[in-house]
Structure formats: structure tokens, C-alpha cells
Amino acid sequence: MTTFNKNIFRSQTLLGVAITALLWGCSPSTSADKTTQKSMEQSSSNYVFGPSADLIEKHMAFLASDDLLGREAGSVGYDVSAQYVADEFKKIGLKPAGENGTYFQNVRLKRAYRDASAGRVTAVDSKGNTVDLVNGVDYAIGASVSNPESRVSGEVVFAGYGIVAPKEGRDDYVGLDVKGKIVATLARTPSGIQTEERAYYGSRKGKEASDRGALAILSLPTPTSEKVYSFERLMTEGRLDSARMSWVKPEGETYSRAPGLKGGARLSMAGAEKLFLGAPIAWEDVLEAAEAEGGVTPTFDLPFTVTISQKSVIDEVSSANVAGLIEGSDPKLKDQVIVLSAHLDHIGVSKTDEEDVINNGALDNAAGIATLFEAARMMQANTPPRRSVMFLAVTAEEKGLLGSQYFAKNPTVPVENIVGNINLDMPILTYDFNDLIAFGGTRSTFNAAISKAAQEMGLVLNPDPMPEQGIFTRSDHFRFVEEGIPSVMLSTGFGNGGEEAWAEHFAKHYHRPSDDMNSTLNFEAAAKFSELKTRITYTLANADERPLWNKGDFFATQFNGPMKD
Known about the structure:
The chain is of the alpha/beta class. Helix content is 31%, strand content 22%. Residues 1-14 and 16-44 have low confidence and may be disordered.
């Protein structure tokens, strides 16, 4: 028996203990213990705050334990976590805000695992010559949630980055006929476009290809994309063998933004170079153009017919969002809802031969859930705000923001009543932060409310220090944005050692088993972060005017959101 199997056996045994404890009401978060006194004070809005570092630590310790096997959506470990959240919401005194009078909103998920041995990409030129493409070396194929077995063939069209950006006057498909063909696009997005908008355009590549009648898509690397997440890392970390998921609509249809695509693969540098043999422009010249400012490359037909085949094992699982509510006190405003969200899931167990294979997700995102609890507890202990506040733990963020997308499209309150979303995803709580970041805050009236609350605590609201990452589009808040709802993601800032702390986490612990309770965690900082977001929520929930997008904002215009006059 390998180390991997021993770990799984041990964790399954402990998981049974955890389930028994929950069923008997013995979760490890039943006492408040010591409360952080340093930050207990009367705020300018006449609310009393007393965040508990001890409670945050206990919640994180449970959620990030090996017992839960990394809380992957659709797993028993995730289900135990969801029940834990519901139990905690009930203890705090939140009203059930899920379905049928419960805290739960059930999300049906199609789940697929690839058959690695069956995936094939073959390329044949006009003379019938076959290019020697090697699985795992030249290309990689993931699972399909739509088809247990598929085979698609077509001529290949190179569409540059595959970006369609009307605001920028850019359409990489101009002059191309891709109907019934396979589109090859460069990974990530070109420079020269505002970073958050650029990330949004990049997220639409599959949809743009599908809308134009393409059958499949090939993702080609660039030097930049290889630095961010290399083909080698993809093949060695086991992520391809993790479940791929999509949610199922209430009427039973599997959700897809690109229903026309019947296949896809990622190519390595070596594989892409082979695909460009005999092309009108050499691969190295394409890369040079791609890396230049603006990233405008020639587009053209490639001299190959490519066939992509795959096999997947598909099943359906259920995984719950968990929602609780504090009802507003103002008869005119109580129907308006501010949503505080955080994802509960993580990436589960790595399929590698390493000693430690359980991805505990302490900061990502047990920290977000634990501080969500504290915000709920503090608000419930005070006079209710004027607007209602929903506390929402979502599933399947790590599978493509699926739980939040399902909720935003099928909310448990009327969607027009949701007036703002504050999202909490992987706050870096390893240092005593003195500033904060509100990703997307400058796009709406959120910024003023956040700045006011920060000043009450002697903190500074700073701009996004890494705009090139496009973080505003990369977590659950963006699913609310897509419904026109002003939204932000809060995190600790780069001051007082924060930049080094962020860099260390991403370099050593992000989506790795080492993101666990053995890390150097600062629970006093976590308590401060809980108070901060509670103050922000009160400021927004008590304001005379609901949150609004700034006039003419790109995302407000894109999704028809309410704007300032």
C-alpha cells in the first residue's frame, strides 16, 4: 500500500468520526473562549465589535483538517463542511435563506474524470503525412462533462489570441471562416487592454469560437503563459486527473457557455511548434508578435487536419450552497440584500506520489468562511442594519465559480433585490496588515464605503497592487457582476510585509497541501479582518442609497447594471 493510500484510509476513518460528531451536535466550535479585546470598541455607527481570534482558529482548524479530504465539491468531506456551516449559521441565529425553509441550496453538478490513455490528438497534412504528436509531451486532454466519448476532426484555423473586444476595436476573427473547423488560440490575453477587461475578454474565448461555429479549440502556449502555469506543471501536479464539473439547470440541461465545442486540448511549446510546420508564418515569429505590446498576430489557416478524441467517466453529484440571513430593520429597505460570500470548497486530494496529498485549503478558503462566521456573529449581536444581509458559502469555486454562478442565476431571493456583493476569497492572514485592497472597488460607490470603514480602524484603502492579474474577474463576486450587481473582493494589502506574504503564499502554498494549519497564521489579523468587513457591511447596509456602478463603467455597461447619474 502506497503512502497515498495510507493517507486516504486514515482520512476516511477520521471523516467518519467528524460526521458522527456533527450528527450529535458536537462540532468543535461551540464555545467563544477568549475574545480579542484590542479591537472591541464603539464604532462611529454605534455598533459594538468584538471579533474572536480563538473562534476563527477553531473554525479554520475544523474546515482545514485532513479529515475533510480537501473539501472538493461533490465529496463527502464537502458535505460535512456544508452541514458545519449550516449548524454554525443556526447557532448564530441567522434565518435560513436557502431552499424550502432550509439553509441549503442544492446544486446539481455533472462531474467528469478523463481516461488519460484514451485521449489523442493527431494531425495530418494535405499530403496525408501524420505529425508525430505524443500524449503528455506535445498535448494534454482533460475530461468532458458533455460527452463520455467523443471524436472531432477539422481543418485548423489560427485565430491569434481569439479575442473579440469591441471597445478596443479588436476582433481576432475578422476575415476567418471557422465554421466546422478547429480553432487554435494563444493562451491568456494580449497586453494593451485594461487588465480586468482583458481578463474578461479572455474568459470568453470558448464562447467566441462556439458562436462562430467552431467544433473544438486548441490552446497554444506563449512564454508568458508558461511562466504563469507551465505545461510541465500541468502534467506533474495531477490537476488533469481531478474532476471537471458543470452545473445542471433546473430543467435538466447541463450549463455551457460554449455548447458548440465538442473537444479541446492544450499544446506544449514542442507540440505547437510541430503544428506550425509549413505554416505561412513560423512559430517563433508568431510568439514574438504575441509578446509585443498589443499582442496582434497574423491569423491564417494551418496546413493540417486535426482529430481530437477523448473518453470520460461522467456522473452527477449534488453539492450545496449554504445561506443565512439577517433581516433588515428599515421597512423601506429591508427587501434590499447585501450578500457576503465566500467559497467553501477546495481542490481535494492530489493524485501524486508525494507524502502529503491532502489540499487542506486553510487560507483558500477556510479563512474566508471563518471570518464570514465572525461577521455574522457580530452583526447578529447588534441592532440589525437597515438593509438585509445574506451570508453565503458557495460550492465549486475551484471548478469554475460554479456554485456562485448557479446562485446568481437562480437566487433564493429575487435577483433585483440583491444590491451588492462583498466576496472573501483567500485573505492572506499571515501578517499584521495595515492596509487593504478592494478588487473592483473603484468601479462603484463601494469604494467610498470601504474607505470610510477602513479609516474607522486606522487602515488605508490602497489600489490594486497587481492589476496585471485581473483578479476582479477570477472569484465568485464576478458571477454577481455578470448579473449587473455591483461587487468587490476584499483582501489584506501589501503594506507592513504584505507584499512578501502574498508572494510567499503564491510561490509555496497556493493550491498545494502546505496551505494548512501548520502555516504561520496570524489569528489576531484574522479577527481584525473580520471586524473590517463587518464595518464595511454596516456602512453599505445603512446608507440611504444602494450601491451603484460608476457612470459608464465597462462592466456596468456590459451587464446592464444600475449606475450613478
